[in-house]
Amino acid sequence: MKVLLLGEFSALHKNLKEGLDALCHEAVIASTGDGWKNVPRDIDLDSRFPSFVGKVHRRIKPLLLINEMEGFDVVQLMNPFIFFKKIFKYDYFFEKIISNNGQFFMLGAGDDAYFWRHGKKVLEYGPFEDFLKYDSKTKSYFMETDKAYKFNASLVSRAK
Q1: Spatial CA neighbour of 64 closest among 33, 92, 106, 37
Q2: Are 86 and 39 in contact (CB under 8 A)?
Q3: CB within 10 Å: which end of the chain, N or C, has fewer?
Q4: How far apart are CA 56 and CA 52, in angstroms?
């Protein structure tokens, strides 16, 4: 079985790939390496260019490499927001990923709009207030918006 592991979060996909490879499956990781962690990957979606050029390159590179992410039996997406950026054709990207591969799954790891909307209501403790106060130093976060939730829901509705 050919498996595309799309995105990374604390080497979760790296470890899953090792297990799938040991079971004689072909697993390929396409990610940016999860920021400063620089987790190993097979298809590098990050940019080595600095500043503005790097930002533009990070938005173009996944589109340039999309053909390398086709023909898999299974695709597992780490988080729908790995490509949700201004000036990126994320609708086109995900449409190609979903339509040119077999089954499409989403993993509940990291944070996404579902986590922010529903987790805040049901979890006794969560990182929400501390993240806003200490990390982002803002009163709100994009993941709390209706736009983020709608995008998240559109991919969840297409996942197994």
Answers
A1: 92
A2: no
A3: C
A4: 6
Cα 33 from Cα 42, distance rounded (Å)? 10
pTM, full prediction: 0.90
The reply to whether 14 and 30 lie within a common domain is yes
pLDDT in tens, 61-77: 999 999 999 999 999 99
In 3D space, the residue among 112, 122, 119 whose CA is nearest the CA of residue 151 turns out to be 112
Q: Domain check: are 34 and 93 in the same one? A: yes
Nearest to 6 by CA among 87, 150, 104, 151: 104
At 115, list the tokens: 């986590």
As a whole number, mean pLDDT of residues 91-108 equals 94
Residue 142 and residue 157 in one domain: yes
Q: Are residues 24 and 71 in the same domain?
A: yes
The domain containing residue 158 runs over which residues?
111-160
Length of the chain: 160
